[in-house]
Amino acid sequence: MIQECTTAARKSIVVKSVRKGFVSLSEIKLHLVSHYGDKQHKCDVCEKRFVRFENAKIHMSIHSGEKPHRCNVCEKQYRTLQGLKIHTRTHTGEKPYRCDICEKRYRTQGYLKIHLLSHTGEKPYKCKRCDKRFMTSYSVTRHMVVHSNEKPHRCKFCEKSFTYLNNAKKHMKLHTNKKTYICYVCDKLFNTARELKHHAVLHEDNIFFQCEICERRFRRPGYLKQHLAVHQD
Questions:
Q1: What distances in angstroms separate CA 60 from CA 36, 54, 64, 65, 126, one per listed residue?
Q2: Where are the domains of the chain?
Q3: Which residues face 211 on adjacent strands?
Q4: Domain 183-232 belongs to what architecture?
Q5: What's the CATH code, domain 67-150?
Q6: Mind listing the pLDDT tens digit for each residue in 148-173?
Q7: Which in 13, 76, 159, 189 has the greatest CB count within 10 A?
Q8: What is the DSSP string of 103-137?
Q9: Residue 172 pLDDT
């Protein structure tokens, strides 16, 4: 239970809670429970235990593959409502988290936190092999593949192997000539997101998708689709 943890441990968790963005006392207490509460809810598959039933339920969806929360714009599905909420911002363009130093904005608090490290120069994660430092734990994990010399991602057509999955996907498009990135303005197709982004600059000053009810104009059909819901209320 929470009462059983040491004062030093509680202080450490409180500091980390504030860094994570929990600012109210109730939020910090709830976060403390996740560390020191009684983990009575167990996963039936891997027996991992959780303090809160809600967290156990979310974890179980990893095993079942269940993704009950669907995006109304692109129909992409997510395990949690929070995941869907963050994804929706890619359609609306909402970036509620702002850097106080350069005023650059981000969709999630996590992205903002990583960005802030670019101002401080801090790289808290270190490679155990070469002592190279990184801003995120993900970057370290990705970097470690370099030391293993493993190339686990193989091309389905020529058996060429790659260290990273993204590189393998880009390579396979050379065989299929499959262009999956579409320009929503002129319907032109591209092999990579970078090519599409470069092309999109040509349309920056033009807005082609217009609401037939109020004549409001939008740059993307997804934005127009969301807007039409206003008239249906």
A1: 21, 10, 6, 8, 32
A2: 2-64, 67-150, 183-232
A3: none
A4: 2-Layer Sandwich (3.30)
A5: 3.30.160.60
A6: 888 888 888 888 888 888 888 888 87
A7: 13
A8: --EESSHHHHHHHHHHHHT---EE-TTT--EESSH
A9: 83
